[in-house]
Amino acid sequence: MLKKLKLKKADAYDYQVATYYATEALVSYLNRGRHCKRFGHEQGDIDEWDDIVLHELNGKTVHCQIKRQMTDFSEHKTTRGKKTRGKNKGQPQELSALDKAFESLAKHFNNPSVTDEKLFWLSLPYPSINIKEKFTVVDLKDVCDEWKKAGATLPAFTKADGKAKKVKDWLKSWCGFLNDEAIYKCIRSLEVQNTLDENELKKASKDKLAHWYTDTTQVLDNIKEFLTLNASSELSVTPRMIAHNIRHFLKPQCRTWARYEKRNKLNWLIAGTLSGHSEDIEPPSLVVENLWNKSNDRNFELCVKHPSNIDTLCSLDLSLVRLALHTSNGVSIVHNNPSAWKKDIAHAIRLTLGTTPTDFSNTTIVNDYEEQSPIDHRYLSKSSEVKSEQIQLTKKMDNLTWEKTKDQVDDYIIELESGEVQNTAEAIWTKWKNDIDADPSLQASSLSDMMYAIVEGNKDIGQLRAGPMTVHLLSEAFGLLLFLAIGLDAEKKGWREFCSEYSVRTIALAYWSGSQVTPSKPRKFFEADKRAERAELLGKETSNILVLPQTTASSSTVLGHTLASSESDGDRIADTRSPKSVITKSFEFIDVIESNSIENIKNFVQDITTKKQSLRDQHIKSLTTG
Prior knowledge:
It holds the Pfam family CTD2. Residues 73-93 are annotated as: Disordered. This protein is α/β, with parallel strands linked by helices. 46% of the residues lie in helices and 14% in strands. The protein is built from 23 helices and 19 strands. Helix 10 (284-292) packs parallel to helix 13.
């Protein structure tokens, strides 16, 4: 049974060393570095070497022996002699505390089947003291360091003299090691650490904590107290548990991170410190909230890692693409192959989010060199788990996008000139909000449908583009739709009823890269398109009323210029699939809105929605008669 930290409670130094090791692991955990998974004690495993046990440090279990020794361990020679006086004369000389510790190691390493899965740390504040006569702790450390080097072999160690011979003599004579092979295994698994005295340990621990935490004195006391309180528990302490215990002292400007590592389509590893350090690792909703909400004083990082042999994006991949595209200022995006991932994202969104021609090309993705997977993680290993993660991320992103859009439309209505137009717009908006608030699926479809054109060929593009970066486009679209609803005398219609009954579709894009067939660089949506491209765009739209909130050309200009392109284009646009009416944010419509008259708005909208057929007939006639 695992227990936490079997420490001698009367000896504060043991706790100080434990606190130092805990601090090292904590800082590595915060910094996405290598650290042990947990601190504990393996009862009855290896006697004397269970003051602290660090589990899964680089795949090894580390057993720590802490010796606050201020004087020599022994003045005897490296070869054990016999007592020369007293009632025990002739008996073997007494073992020192260190001899007994290594006697325990002898029982472990004398077994020829022992592997190198365990490491042993000997921690002392004063390494210059003697183990035996003319044989110091520093000598032992030198031998351990020398025979860990590349090229070291057992035959060479067997022949070695000097300090190595002293080690062999001591361990065989005093500690019960049977042969050089057992000693060789031992010293290659042993690390002698100078852990300083209490004051120096405290200072070293505080120095490690200073980058991450305020009031390092209090933080260090909290860590020590946490270890003390949990010393008799039957579970083990983890760096994540320690971080959770001192979370209120974390400096806001320090980096916190969320990491998604894809092994294959059905296997993902999720880790991080972004959402705190509780047992629930990186819940999707908290990840989205942290990365998408403005937080100027925080330093966040989204890390994504993909295997090199996967070249298609699954549904969770696309959710992470969307998450990355709409992160707020202060969020760094890192990937193990940034250029390839950026190319995949560019293809997925067709080079633009729809806001500017450079809204994606200016996105920076940093290379992530960290090869080790974080120890504390959630593991997704089933298609249902991967799907659930994707759904939770998407649902939260949809909801947060809707909430931000809703807030901006609220502000827009408040800023309207007081009067019947504002009152009516507010009444319509309240009804629409209630409909969309009550139905998460409506939040998703209403926003994503506005962020793509059918001619782009993939509805998923709209979902990827819908987020905080495009909320201003979405809110402006809703603003124009409110005036359309007033003009159509649809004050009593709910959102779903309004869209379906009047067959209304909105494309909120300000920029795009053209159709799926003829893609190009991002350009102003519709207004920078050629006639044939405009004809293709309108020809694919099947609604009766098409709303283009970012287009300033008049409705008649949109239809007229498109229809006049060529005889074949005219025939295609005359097809019943194309919109019967196009509503734009033209100067004429803006003037009507500014008149603050419901009657004027109704006259303008109804004039547009009944004019299409006459325009169609007129242009087709001009095409056929020359």
